[in-house]
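step: validate -> pass
step: tokenize input -> pass
step: predict -> running
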Amino acid sequence: MNESKQKTIELAYLILRLTMGVNMFTHGVARLLDIDKFNGWLISQFSNTILPEFIVSISSYVIPFVELIIGVLLILGLFTSRALLVGALLIVALVFGSGLQENWNVMSSQMIYAIFFFILSYLIELNRFSLDRVREKL
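step: predict -> pass
step: emit ->
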């Protein structure tokens, strides 16, 4: 891979990582600022599903912290692979919840998040492989 193409990939990765980080961070902060309201809203959203209220309530207190931590790690570029994995697993859980609610519109948005997590993970691996090839040539 030529140097210009490598720099373009690195820039795309940086912009997407920062964007996802800010997105996750602001989701977490907004929910944490009024966590009891978020808890009540989430419980009402799942009232007609098979999930017990205590599971929904626990989730409503965990999700904002997970979003906040993922956001901070992505913004800072720390433990990025692990943050992306946790973020992707969070999206899996959210897609499951949307499926239980039969909320297909929200699920569609969550699938877009899943694609972004995949792209970021792919770009990390792509960059890792290209750096390995450079090292091999040295």
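step: describe -> Helices lie at 3-33, 35-45, 53-76, 80-101, 104-137.
step: cleanup -> pass
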